[in-house]
Each structure stands twice: as C-alpha cells, then as structure tokens.
UniProtKB/TrEMBL annotation:
Transmembrane segments: none annotated. Pfam families: Invasin_D4. Residues 186-232 form the Invasin domain. This is Invasin domain-containing protein. It comes from the Bacteria. InterPro entries: C-type_lectin-like/link_sf (IPR016186), Invasin/intimin_cell_adhesion (IPR008964), Invasin_D4 (IPR048658). Gene3D superfamilies: 2.60.40.1080, Mannose-Binding Protein A, subunit A.
Length: 383
C-alpha cells in the first residue's frame, strides 16, 4: 500500500506538472486575441441618380412663345429662335427623394440641336442665318423642332448628378412665313408706293390712309401710329377708330418752318417691324369758295391773301396735256396726286371746290378741264 501510495503521490505530482504546462499554453493562446486591431470601415450608401422628364418649348424672336401654325415675319431669321426656360416644361425627378439643387436643371455642354425643314428638306446653314424673306415666299410653311440634352443635379444624396444627359425634345411646330407686300399709301381710289414722295401738295381737308399689308386696311389695327414732330396741321389720333387706323389728315396750314412731316407706324407685337414715312409739302392750296370770278379778279383774290399765294398755273394742277385726261401720280399736280374732289372733300364744306361742284365737274376724269377753271378756284403758295 505505501508503495502504491507513493506511486499515487508520484502520479499526482506528474499530473500537477502537466497542469502547469496546459496553463502556459492557454495563456499564450489568449494573449494575441486581446490586442487584435479592428478591420471594418463606414462607407456612404449609393442611391439612384436624379433625372429629368417632360418636353422643351421654343421662343420666337422677341421671346414670345412659339405655337403650332404660328406666323413669323419675313424679316426674322431661323437662328433667332431660342429655347424656352427649362422650368416651364421640364420636371426634376429623384426616386430617393433627394433635394433639387438650384436650378437643378441645365443644358449639357453639347447644347441644343435644331431641326428646321421646308417640307422634307432640311434648311441649309446659309438659310438658317438669312431672313425668311430671302428664301421663302409669303405663307410658306416650315417646321422646327428642338432637342435639348438636360442634366439634373441634387443637393443631397449620392450621386448628385445625372451624369448622362436626358434628351428632351420639343413638339414639331409649323411656322408660316409672313412676308406680305410692303406698305403703301392709299388716297382717293389710288395707291402709291411708300417712298414715292407723295404728297408734295396739300390743302385743309386732304387725307390719305396707310395700308400696312400693302393691300388694304385689314392689318392696320396691328400697328400704332405717331407723328414725330408735333405738327399741329396734321391729325392722326382723331381718325384712329376701327377701320380708319393709319389715316393722316391735314387740318391746318403748314409754314416753311414746319412743312416736313414724319409718320411712324410700329407693329404692336414686334417693335422691329417699324415703317417711317417722310413727307415734305412744297405747295399749299387755299379754296376760294363758290364764288365765280373773272381771271383778273381771281388773280387779285389769290395775291390778296398774302403769304406768297397766287393763282395756280396749269402745271401745278395736273400732269395732263391740254384737252387730254390726266393720270394719277404721286408727285405731279394737285389733281394727279389727290384725284376727284367729290370723294375727297365734302361738297359744300369750307374746303369744297364750289365752282366745280356747280358746274358738274366734280369727279371728272378730265384733269385738263379741271385746270381750265383752276384760276377761279384756288390760290396756291409755295411752302
């Protein structure tokens, strides 16, 4: 038993020694775990990019919105059309709910592309830089469409930009070229060219009308009219009622100091559509009333008016040869410029031609006959 006890003791002692070894290994194995560094990182979450949707629209020259089948003046050019602000027809979209930047929508550097066509034929680069009137007749219908690459930008979230532009297009607009004839002057049944020089003669009660479309007065309401110089012998405003817009009336007598007149007609919707009429009166006529006079008495009456008045010679009354009919002309005699008196000046008025009315010659086409009686009718003076 002892020895056994000894063996047991010996065995126990060996066992303890084994425990010490296990403890050392265990401590050695735990130590590295206590000092291990962290390896994880915090990274931002990538969402969806902002984008844009909708369509773009076009502005005409003068920044007015273009509509389908719109008219454009022949004096304008295709390259004067511009893209309307994006905010009017384009919507910013972000599926993550990120806040739109300011402005948040912009045209990409590639820029807007324009497609102009006459039927199926694209306009050339030269045509795009010329006026419509240069290449296209009145009422020619063209088409135009704009394509705009749009970038979207947000203040929050990632990514903040769309990166690749979204191509937005405008509708295809029809554009009709408005290239009417130039304006003319209408006076008593006859029209004269705008810069023909009419009139060079005048009298109280004379009047004429501007035809802004070159044909009739239907387009006159599209314009405003002003006399640039405050001439008191001219009236524009009093007759600017419906249907009579653009009528110029002589209501007083000019002097050598104020015998020039400038009338300006301006389109109400396009200030670039402006027409200026310059007039210089060289001879002024005064009516002698319905009194019959001899030639000598007529001469005395006219010179007695003073101010350089005299009995009008034949050539200042008409361009007709003796015994023949005269013709209407913008810078010829009084009758040639103003025409038949019955339709121009009311018979019996202070400005009427009394003698011609009584003799049945009002409205006659024989300007030479008119001239024969001019001495008893009118006094004339150079202005």
């Amino acid at each position: 038993m002892k020895q056994r006890a000894n063996n047991i003791v010996g065995a126990h002692t060996h066992y303890r020694a084994g425990v010490y070894g296990i403890l050392c290994v265990a401590l050695s194995g735990v130590a590295p775990a206590v000092g291990a560094p962290a390896t994880g990182e915090t990274r931002p979450i990538m969402g969806r990019a902002p984008t844009a949707a909708g369509s773009v629209s076009i502005l005409k020259p003068g920044a007015t919105p273009l509509v389908d089948n719109d008219q454009i003046l022949g004096s304008k050019k295709p390259n004067e059309f511009t893209l309307a602000p994006l905010s009017s027809g384009v919507t910013f979209t972000d599926l993550d709910g990120d806040t739109q930047a300011t402005p948040g929508l912009a045209i990409a550097p590639a820029g807007v592309t324009w497609t102009w066509k006459n039927g199926v034929t694209p306009l050339t680069t030269t045509q795009l830089n010329q006026t419509f009137a240069t290449n296209f007749a009145h009422n020619t219908t063209l088409t135009v469409q704009a394509n705009a690459p749009v970038l979207s930008t947000s203040l929050t979230g990632l990514p903040t930009t769309s990166g690749t532009p979204v191509l937005l297009t405008s509708p295809v607009y029809r554009v009709r070229v408005n290239n009417p004839p130039p304006p003319v002057i209408y006076v008593n049944g006859t029209t004269f060219a705008w810069n023909s020089g009419f009139p060079t003669t005048g009298f109280v009660g004379a009047k004429f009308q501007l035809y802004m479309n070159g044909v009739d007065a239907t387009a006159n309401n599209n314009y405003t009219y002003q006399e640039n110089g405050s001439q008191t012998w001219v009236d524009l405003a009093a007759l600017n009622a419906s249907g009579t817009e653009g009528t110029v009336s002589f209501i007083g007598t000019p002097t050598s100091a104020n015998k020039t007149l400038t009338v300006i007609a301006t389109n109400k919707t396009d200030s670039n559509d402006k027409h200026t009429l310059n007039i210089t009166i060289g001879r002024w006529f005064v009516n002698g009333g319905a009194t019959t006079r001899t030639a000598a008495n007529a001469d005395a009456y006219c010179t007695g008016l003073g101010g350089g008045y005299s009995t009008p010679p034949y050539a200042t009354m008409t361009n007709a040869a003796y015994g023949a009919a005269g013709t209407r002309a913008p810078v010829a005699g009084l009758w040639s410029q103003w025409g038949a008196w019955a339709t121009l000046v009311p018979v019996g008025s202070a400005a009427s031609i009394g003698l011609l009315s009584r003799m049945g010659l009002i409205g006659t086409t024989s300007a030479s006959t008119l001239a024969l009686y001019s001495a008893s009718l009118r006094a004339t003076s150079t202005v």
